[in-house]
């Protein structure tokens, strides 16, 4: 693995960059991609960002980045932890990636050179330190990109991945003039009308069991069809039941085509979500895990209620 | 007005402190109060925090602060912007306050000496700088108190009052070992079952007008009675309608005893909430204002819908 100085020298030594981001892009992969593109152009390189499409809410990240025509010579990936995460760009690029920059400890991405720092809260936190070593001028546009990645990957500095270092990097980006008012509003204080409708339906679905220590919410295909909404609005729903005071196991059931439900389990107070899900052939992390269960709504819900009562007894 | 060095010398020179917090206490007034109490005791003073009651969610702030018996000699207020905000402690203390430490630019509190810094995101941010000047040892307990005040008054670093300085103070408090995981979970990721019920009811009440550019939610006395809930669960509701994509005016109507509604108005895109409310004898800030309107639910709602349509046309 390269160290950060070697990454800086590598980027200075090469040219004509394709910068790869992951599919279903989030603020960190796009913020990283566009920031790196701007930084490379600043030192005289040609560079472009390869995405699977930029969602409207992130359009501001690329507003000062014009397309450039050139033949790709060097391929760098940002925030891509595994080959499959390239999505529709996988076939074209796998085997041709020169450098992978990532912050996922689980990184298995195929690349000639790598820099992975699992202690960085966001990939953009790595890029901040990299740009220092490249003597990049932190323009407002670069600061906006990096702040976006850091704030979105930390839930606006709320998640446990946030370190004192993360806060200091964000402070520096604010010194450099990033527009936190716009970014925080767009990322954390804006919901589509569909999302509001979906949340309303999900709140209506909520029930408790195990003496209020387990809460269950669900979406069905019928609900989604009626609300004219889909998987892209589901983000964040799974965190709702765990937030309720006294709830140790929060369960989100999402009906899928084919007669089964995807189950997301979030837990508090060291209740092991992965152990809970392993009963149904699933798994994950201690506080966040998942599984799939076949059956109709009532059957699957009853199964989960019984399992929660047993698990908490 | 004193400067921060003079405040430090004042606190070192006096003893036997009553520290006043404001009524309907929040994380900043309580965090300030308990942090100052710990700091004063650390330099050999006697001190206690005077509150109107500490809500359960803030109980951790006082867990290492035993009661002390002594005769009060010096009275200091923290985060109290006006006399009336002392609530039930007003009669006993007004006219006897020696020093007021606050961050509200609108401060009108009656005190012999004052230190007010309106650029501080939280009163706890002022105390951090004060403690540096007093050479206080930032224990984990003090750091927990100060971080709580800063994170709650900034919506976990999301609101526009958050500065680069705020981020750096928070970083230092993290260095000093404050328990951000516990605090962020307790402050931002925990909702009572009553609150969830209330949110569900409020979502069900939501309607749009002015081609989706105005959203209205409401609570009625009947709803609150049925849900067995009250004003203490209403926090944060007013921010819901403004969050919706395309909404310029977000209105929250709360029925009160006496046949009228309290109206909260939150706006986007420079729509002036204060101007909107002034039509009904109210006022406030450009993006957040309020008023009261007499009448039943349907009448008041129709009045607001018509006003919003006219205001946005």
Automatic annotation (TrEMBL), chains A, B:
Coiled coil: none annotated. Keywords: Hydrolase. GO terms for molecular function: hydrolase activity; nucleic acid binding. The keyword Hydrolase applies. Residues 221-307 form the DHHA1 domain. It comes from the Bacteria. Residues 19-150 form the DDH domain. Its EC number is 3.1.-.-. This is Bifunctional oligoribonuclease and PAP phosphatase NrnA. It comes from Ruminococcus bromii. The lineage of its organism: Bacteria, Bacillati, Bacillota, Clostridia, Eubacteriales.
